[in-house]
Amino acid sequence: MKDINFKGVHTALITPFTKKDNLDEERLGELIEAQITSGVNGLVPCGTTGESPTLSHDEHDQMIAMTVKFVNGRVPVIAGTGSNATSEAVRLSRHAQQVGADAVLLVNPYYNKPTQKGLYYHFKAIADSVDIPCILYNIKGRTGVNIETETVKALSDACSNIVGVKEASGSLEQMRSVIDATHGKFHVLSGDDKLSIPLIESGGDGVVSVASNIAPGYIAKMIHLALEGKWEQAREMESQLSGFFQACFLETNPIPIKTAMARYGWCEESFRLPMCTFEREEHRNALYEELDKLEALGAIIRR
């Protein structure tokens, strides 16, 4: 199995659509180039931010294959291949490996609410089906189920290619418990931009970032300052970004970040139903205010 350093910033890519609601390959290629040039450490297609639940199976496969092609080995591609059906997650993961993804990101099964035993066998079956690293994605607020630390530890012991977790439980205490239980040999990445610095301070490795879609270089610098132990500088940058981190969740992700990306020409302001444009105009105005602040810092990437 390829040894990958998962430290740093991994951008949870938006999925750009054309005005005719097809995947926009041109905009995706431009966005990936800007991300890599800005210094991110990895890219994550087909996650929550990428609207994966509303992509067809063919589109899902295509999005991962295009990302691998555009990245061309320069940074790791961590492909979102989770599902609430184990057989579907196995198929998606095998396809991701086949087209050259470096790792897969496996979200908790949603809606069916499995037990911890069910979660163990689900993730183990997927990991056993591929030879590339697997990262668990714990996000109870979206899926209705939490991967308990004991289950994470059991999976890390049983499967050599289950190497980390994206923790979006919102609980720093749980993140710390995973770090302690796995003795620092397991990658723990924050799924929340606002918790990335506290997590690194606790021994974590970085973040799978929503906000870095629009401010990749600035967020990469902040995270690397923290990884280097330069806490005062990292926290100063965090304070400058905190308003934008909050704005990214004024409505359901990826509505705010994709609206921000559309403002600067990186995509159309189009979503797949049931996702849609902002429900409340005051939320759009608040987002734009935070973007103006980032512009003043020189943090925004422009197309």
From TrEMBL:
One of its GO terms (biological process) is diaminopimelate biosynthetic process. Pyruvate binds at T49, V208. This is 4-hydroxy-tetrahydrodipicolinate synthase. The gene is dapA. Pfam families: DHDPS. GO terms for cellular component: cytosol. It catalyses: L-aspartate 4-semialdehyde + pyruvate = (2S,4S)-4-hydroxy-2,3,4,5-tetrahydrodipicolinate + H2O + H(+). Keywords: Amino-acid biosynthesis, Cytoplasm, Diaminopimelate biosynthesis, Lyase, Lysine biosynthesis, Schiff base.
